[in-house]
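Hey, weird one. I pasted the Molybdopterin oxidoreductase family protein sequence into the form twice and got a warning about non-standard characters only the second time. First submission, copied straight from the form history:
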Amino acid sequence: MTADPRAADGRTVLPLDPSLAPPGSQGFRDAGGIPADKWHADQNGETLVPTHCCFCGVQCGMYLRVDRGGKVFGVEPRNHDINRMRLCPKGVNAYQQVNHPDRLTAPLMRRSRDEELREVSWDEALDFTVSEIKRIQEAYGRDAFGVLGGASLFSEKTYLVGKFARVALRTRHVDYNGRLCMVSAAGANKLAFNIDRAGNPFSDILLTDCLLLAGANVGECFPVLTQYVWGARDRGATLIVVDPRETAVARTADIHVALKSGTDSAFFNAVLNVVIEEGLTDENYLAAHATGWEEVKANAALYPPSRAAEICGIPAEQVVQVARAFACAPKAMAFHARGIEHHTQGVENCLSVINLCAATGHIGKPGAGYGTLTGQGNGQGGREHGQKADLLPGGRSILNEEHRRQICEIWGIEESELPAAGTSMMEMVWQMQRQEIRGLIGICNNPFVSLPNYAVVKDGYDTTEFHAQFDFFLSETAANAHVVFPVTIWAEDEGVMANAEARVVKHNKAQEPPAGVRTDTWVMCEIARRLGAGDKFAFGGSRDVFDELRRASAGTIIDYSGITYERLEETGGISWPCPSTDHPGTPRLFEDGKTYHADGKIHLQVVEWHPPADPYDDEHPMTLTTGRTVAHFLSGNQTRRLGALVEQTPRPWAEVHPSHGFRNGEPVRVVTRRGSEVFPALVTEAIRPDTVFIPYHWPVPTAANALTIDALDPRSKIPEYKVCACRIEHAAAIDEVPAPPVAPGHVAYPETQVSRTDPLPPTAPQGRGTSERG
């Protein structure tokens, strides 16, 4: 968004349509300036700091309200062109984290898990951490220590995580929690296009004639993105939703394909079969811009609609409907999310959607294209610059000799000092169980809630000899650690994130951190200094790191070299690649018909459907699937502490079909091969009779991920969260929801405890036919 000329009083005002300003918002909506010392608000003593939401990959613009004492006390929506004055329930409440009474404000430490955590000085916590790193690496080798990062960190910090692991610790074992989110899409994108990002901006949705959403619960996971979906509908676009549940957006769809979880590639192969059989392919486009078409075409012949109907549990006619609607549309777009990615065939599922888009020529045009909806705020940026096990900054491969040479030159190390590729997040847990990894630093993640098969995860972490965790609240994982470093929340530092469009946006610092709190950047640099690598980590803050990141990405596919903080402030965001400061960025890929493969073509891949990893039998005849709900985010470490969000959704539930005979709120035991838990039933016709849904934001004994399977996609290494075999039973009592952990000497924030014990499912309707409470 380009700023208007300065107003008479010197402020920079943003161009807004007055008709879009809600009642009472006129006073704040013109505020916001460049640079920071020009930020103003109409209320005396109040400053409005323009920034972005900390949660999902939409990255809505917002203003944080800061009082005369420098404290964040509220939020206002911002008329950024991503969200146009809209915020979801999480965005509206996000500011309450900043000065929350549960914030960690001093390092916590214990030398043994037999002890209780206690507050210590920074020097004591750092000295103990460094001594344990040295002890473990001297005794067992450098790779006996690992690092796990996070995709909610600013890109500067994700860059630093990768460099910290490989240069300060000199270990190959580094990965991040985006491994649980986007890596199936990343794997498919690299195979097909040799670039890992969405092909089109959100605004293209408003131009399309047919929108296909596969495994994407937009209304709850990306609420503000719904405006684009409905905007397309208002123009007359056909909406197709592929999801086992009738989600809020699926209820508005022209076609809702309620297929059985784990059968997506069979469905999309069958859709492609109909497109081919009815002569709806774009043969000119395929001949000019794709390879592998004949092999894909032959494979699609094996999936007639009748076969998909049998595998997917849907009418064969729906396959034909979808094929005709998508292929015959002048412009069509397909987006997917975790629903088709969280599978042992997640990469193949994504490739099957790419095959459909390419076969119909719907690639690289306004209103026509393909993309993934990112779950975490920096799910895109978090995997671009080096914290992923096999990647170096700029998306370079750690296996490529030239790429290794390039990054070693920038980092000032010898190529022989750069470790080899590491393993994925779940594989690292297995290695912890086997004592191959004996020490770990975790940054901005909560595997005790977010990883599958909790019993295995807990055992892996308990087996480690030393574990340190960075966080601003005491998560379930941090509560199990030897050292917990209290670090800044998003509003107490500055940095960039790349949203689901690959648009890089700027987060601004709104207040100083509490006394005793440090930035993640400072902590990593200080540990590196104490390990003798301080000359490689002489960063004063995010701006210094971003300057090195820009240099490290120059000339790569993921080129940030032309992006500066100043340009981001002026424009509202720039899509990479952006190779120079006069380059406008690249909102839409493939407009010239070329991909990033050497031959410039889409490399189509044959996809064969195979059953999920967890087999069905008489004891486990149903499917358990998991997902998010609108009030909460990921492991819930942030949102389960915010009163309004807890009140809206105090606990998880088991969503079941009325045919099973449960009444709303009755205890239902869900049993898998990993264990069992009891939830209140939410009875609705909006779910398949053979399927159970549980949201996953809570810890044991109400953790969906205590039940899920830790089977991985062989290419992306993403866990198969979206399908495992289960059964349901009547039970006597519902499992109690635990309070979030708090630091020693603190008590759980009472405002978040009142509704937490509510035994009934949420009041908000989850779908057609949902029973009323009570």
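That's the output from the first submission. The warning seems to come from a hidden character in my clipboard, not from the data itself. The chain has 22 helices and 28 strands.
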